[in-house]
């Protein structure tokens, strides 16, 4: 997937001071949390707290450092349970400025990479002080092993494999990623139909109240244009799995698409970003090989020319590799070709 840049990246990076302080915190046992915020083009430490009690009491003490109208990242030490590590929490109040909401959401992954993705065993997000609670933290969905490995640098990935590191995929007693985002039987049946070629396209959405993956629609027939029109017929985020055969080709390509428009709420973006791994895992568990994985923001991002597996594109030297024009701040807009999840 390397021929496309992560176009939604903000260009914001962790400051050297934050990287150094987090490194010291990991090596020691005194620091319970660091609060970090975006200033200019860097993410800097704006508050810190030491371990002073148990995890729950320290978490509640940490929330007193949050602002009602200013976003922040929280790096919180997890030392209870079988898989200790660090929580990365994204706190973005609903009344924050729209630009800041987008900036914090789009900078999360680069922050993880700068600090070392393998350090984080859990993630959560909240839009108000009530959501930022220890009880909700215990119910938090944690990134799957494949998703976390995809965010690591090659050297981090090698160290994780050498140490036989296992990713904690739940802070409760369950350690299966998909448990937090269960897939409905209708959705599973639709995927089974896709595997047997009875379904041409499967649309799925996250049901917010119970954070489950539900079937929206399954199409038995449809060409690229009709499937695309259905995908963008409403502004709600959704997942799409469809089979595409390019003109002049007899080989079908299985395409996975996460459609999440720029105008979606931060909470929705986080939910879908986390749930995409569970959708891919269920599809692959049913024997469906995902040839292309895409994340799109608008209809113009999805074209037939993008629906080519990277291995095939690399073999075709006659096809130029184009990057989309840069938007404000130097960030590329539009389609993102996702790494393996």
Residue windows where pLDDT falls under 50 for at least 5 positions: 1-8, 143-148, 162-179, 311-341
Topology-level CATH name of the largest domain: Severin
Distance between the termini: 12 Å
- State the domain count: 2
Proportion in helices:
25-40%
In CATH, what is the class of the largest domain?
Answer: Alpha Beta
- Architecture (CATH level 2) name of the largest domain: 3-Layer(aba) Sandwich
N-to-C SSE series? EHEEHEEHEHHHHHEEHEEHEHE
Describe the structure in your own words.
This protein is 31% helix and 23% strand. It has helices spanning 16-27, 55-62, 98-115, 134-138, 145-150, 154-162, 177-180, 185-195, 224-231, 266-285, 310-315; strands at 13-14, 31-39, 42-50, 72-78, 85-91, 120-126, 201-207, 212-219, 238-245, 252-259, 292-296, 336-337. A six-stranded mixed beta sheet has the order 1-3-2-4-5-6, sandwiched between helices. A six-stranded mixed beta sheet has the order 8-7-9-10-11-12, with helices on both faces. By secondary structure, it is α+β, with helices and mostly antiparallel strands. It folds into two domains: 13-177, Severin (3-Layer(aba) Sandwich), CATH 3.40.20.10; 181-337, Severin (3-Layer(aba) Sandwich). The longest helix has 20 residues, at 266-285. Interacts with G-actin; ADP-actin form. Residues 318-341 are annotated as: Disordered. Residues 10-142, 178-312 form the ADF-H domain.
């Amino acid at each position: 997937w390397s021929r496309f840049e992560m176009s939604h990246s903000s260009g914001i990076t962790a400051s050297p001071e934050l990287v150094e302080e987090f490194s010291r915190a990991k090596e020691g046992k005194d620091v319970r949390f660091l609060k970090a915020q975006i200033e200019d083009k860097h993410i800097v430490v704006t508050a810190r707290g030491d371990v002073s009690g148990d995890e729950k009491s320290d978490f509640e003490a940490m929330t007193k450092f949050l602002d009602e109208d200013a976003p922040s990242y929280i790096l919180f030490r997890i030392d209870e349970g079988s898989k200790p590590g660090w929580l990365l929490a994204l706190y973005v109040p609903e009344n924050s400025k729209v630009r800041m909401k987008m900036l914090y959401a789009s900078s999360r992954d680069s922050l993880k990479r700068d600090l070392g993705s393998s350090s984080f065993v859990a993630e959560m997000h909240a839009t108000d002080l009530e959501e930022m609670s220890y009880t909700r933290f215990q119910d938090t969905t944690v990134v799957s092993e494949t998703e976390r490995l995809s965010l690591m640098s090659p050297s981090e990935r090698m160290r994780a494999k050498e140490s036989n590191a296992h990713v904690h995929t739940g802070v409760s007693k369950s350690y299966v990623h998909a448990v937090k985002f269960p897939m409905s039987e209708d959705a599973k049946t639709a995927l089974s139909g896709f595997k047997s070629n009875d379904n041409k396209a499967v649309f799925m959405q996250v049901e917010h109240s119970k954070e489950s993956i539900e079937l929206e629609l399954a199409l038995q027939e449809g060409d690229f244009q009709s499937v695309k029109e259905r995908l963008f017929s409403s502004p709600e985020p959704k997942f799409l799995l469809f089979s595409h055969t390019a003109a002049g080709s007899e080989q079908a390509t299985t395409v996975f698409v996460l459609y999440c428009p720029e105008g979606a709420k931060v909470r929705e973006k986080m939910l879908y970003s986390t749930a995409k791994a569970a959708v891919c895992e269920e599809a692959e568990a049913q024997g469906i090989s995902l040839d292309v994985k895409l994340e799109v923001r608008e209809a113009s991002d999805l074209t037939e020319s993008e629906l080519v597996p990277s291995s095939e594109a690399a073999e075709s030297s006659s096809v130029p590799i184009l990057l989309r024009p840069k938007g404000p701040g130097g960030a590329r807009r539009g389609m993102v070709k996702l790494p393996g999840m």
